[in-house]
Amino acid sequence: MNLTLFVPALSLLLPWTLASSAAESPPNVIFVLTDDLGYSDVGCYGAEKVKTPHIDQLAAEGIRFTDFHTAASICSPSRAAFLTGAYPQRAGLYMGINPNRTAHWFLGLHPDEITIAEQFSKHGYATHMVGKWHLGTEPEFLPRTQGFDSYYGMPCNFSHSPRFFDGDKEVFARTPLDRLTQLYTERVTKIIHDQATRSEPFFLYYAHNYPHTPYQAGKDFKGSSKDGVRGDVMQELDWGIGEMMAALRKSGIADNTIVIFTSDNGPTANQYAKPYRGTKYVTFEGGHRVPFIFHWPARIKPSSGFRQKSCVVKESNAGNSGEFHYGVSEVSINAMDVFPTLSAAIGSELPKERVYDGESLLPLFEGIPLKRPTAQPFFYYNCENLQAIRSGPWKLHLPRSQDQLPFWDKNKAFANLRNPVLYNLDTDSSESTNVAADNPEIVNELMELGDSIRQNLGEFMQRGRQQRPTGSLFPDVPVISHEKDWDTLDPATVKAIAKQRQKRHPNHRAMKVQPRRKNRK
Asked: What angle, 0 to 180 degrees and rounded to 10, lies between the N-to-C axes of helices 180-196 and 228-251?
């Protein structure tokens, strides 16, 4: 096995050009990001207890990817990767931000990061966001400082803060969870209808908070599924997607509107991640592998052999027509590909002097392979801790200590992993049979690759050479991902941060910080 570490280009734009008509009429873009939705949570990915006909229809008319990975198995870092095109570690936002935590309240996505919203705005797009932000709650880090013209929604997890905003105005002090999908759907369809009357194209980042807990179904969907409240919530979410697509068709702009549907990470229960092992919070496949559907009627056309009910066909190249027949793709892609893909779709080069960890997927729609090799390594970080590496079919889980683990890590089996564990995902998608002893060369090469990438993207309590800064109100203070390590800061710094917090949030009541574990070296 000859592994080559792919070094991302500073500005990578693959040779995929839009047809002249598309260039004259740039596509609208709706990026739908659900929360904690697993691989088998929707019909065309294997769900049996819920019905999701509208999401299934997106797949039926587009491309359904079966080997898509998010950049993290929790919310904040995963969202940072989607919006910046970089591993969360590179973009400086690799922890799950909770504004109630002493170590997190002053952190966020760095204002110098270039988001996909800013990329669209630079090209004359109206940019809107509806839903969950989770990339910092201080004014310096909010959506409208990161390229969005408008914001509407519950920006945090309900348990972090239940407040709901329309721009800067608080609409609800406590979000009515049973009305959440209805509220979002009304705003999304309003944006579509309003934008259809205007000359400029639009980008809508629709980041629904569901099916993250807590959730409640609307009255019309209670008891509608065979999977309890969660299933009811899923079916209502699907209804909202149907209303969104109906609004696009009614406004006459559906054909040249890109719709992407995916999730930020895996589910909290493995039954929604099948056939893969693991859940949210861990680096088994179930934490990272989620649905990804790409829908663009102007570029992706139907195949005569398509079987709508099963959502299963083979890819079909449409020759030189610039069209691609819809179906299923097994090509391995990831969250960092979204930024380059959408940039290429609007004819924009990637910003200079910035490293991107993905590439445009648009060549696939003309039957052209991606530029990166099939065995391009993918790195599974959990916060600062590099836990696994995949190259082609091989996935190596790396040794780790308890101290390196973020507090949310649920992988008890590997909590103190002393020896590397190797799986062949082609023959063992459930990651159940360790073949490390039979493949020592592969193990050694991936171990060496891990040592190399840590130098660039970091490790627990170690900054990497290529990591960009984390957004912080105190940029000279070291970033502490976990409360357990808060006491590594000097007392004067801790006191200054607490004073600033009290100034900004007079009604805040300080929470007791748990000290470091005594066995930490």
From this structure: 10
What are the respective helix, strand and coil percentages of the chain, to the nearest 5? Answer: 30, 15, 55
**Which residue is listed with tokens 């079987």?**
307
Strand boundaries in 353-512, DSSP class E:
378-382, 385-391, 394-397, 421-424, 471-472
How far apart (Å, rounded) are the C-alpha atoms in residues 18 and 14?
Answer: 12
Between these two residues, 394 and 308, which has the higher pLDDT value? Answer: 394
Rounded to whole angstroms, the Cα distance separating 56 from 44 reads 6
- DSSP 8-class letter at 131: E
Higher pLDDT: 304 or 217? It is: 217
Which residues are annotated as catalytic?
A: 75, 134
- For 317, the token pair is 């190249």
Q: Where are the domains of the chain?
A: 26-366, 378-457
One-letter amino acid of 89: Q
Q: Which residues contact 240 (CB under 8 A, 6 or more apart)?
A: 181, 182, 184, 185, 188, 208
What does the alpha-carbon distance between residue 236 and residue 215 come to, in Å, rounded to a whole number?
11
CB 58 within 8 A of CB 295: yes
**378-457, what's its fold?**
Arylsulfatase, C-terminal domain (3.30.1120)
Distance CA 272, CA 286 (A): 9
pLDDT digits (tens, 9 = 90+) for 10-21: 333 332 333 333
Q: Strand pairing partners for 382?
A: 385
Distance of alpha carbon 257 from alpha carbon 266, whole angstroms: 27
Residues 333-356 pLDDT 10s: 999 999 999 999 999 999 998 999
What one-character-per-residue DSSP string does 189-226 give? Answer: HHHHHHHHTSSS-EEEEEE--TTSSS----TTTTT-SS
The separation between CA 285 and the C-alpha centre of its own chain, rounded to angstroms, equals: 15
Sign of CA dihedral 193, 338, 115, 74: positive
Nearest to 128 by CA among 152, 150, 146, 153: 150
Torsion of the alpha carbons at 169, 172, 177 and 178, rounded to the nearest 10? -110
Q: What is the pLDDT of residues 149-181, one digit of tens each?
A: 999 999 999 999 999 999 999 999 999 999 999
Residue entry with tokens 């065979």:
226
Strand 28-34, strand 202-207: pairing: parallel
Superfamily the domain 26-366 falls into: Alkaline Phosphatase, subunit A (3.40.720.10)
Which strand (E) or helix (H) includes residue 89? Answer: helix 88-91
Q: What is the pTM of this model?
A: 0.91
Spatial CA neighbour of 89 closest among 108, 68, 72, 102: 72
pLDDT in tens, 11-67: 333 323 333 334 468 999 999 999 999 999 999 999 999 999 999 999 999 999 999
Q: What are 451's two structure tokens?
A: 């040592």
- In 19-174, which ranges are E strands? 28-34, 63-65, 68-69, 107-108, 126-131, 150-153, 164-166, 169-172
Strand extents, DSSP E, 96-181: 107-108, 126-131, 150-153, 164-166, 169-172
What does DSSP say about strands 316-317 and 421-424: parallel, antiparallel, or unpaired? unpaired
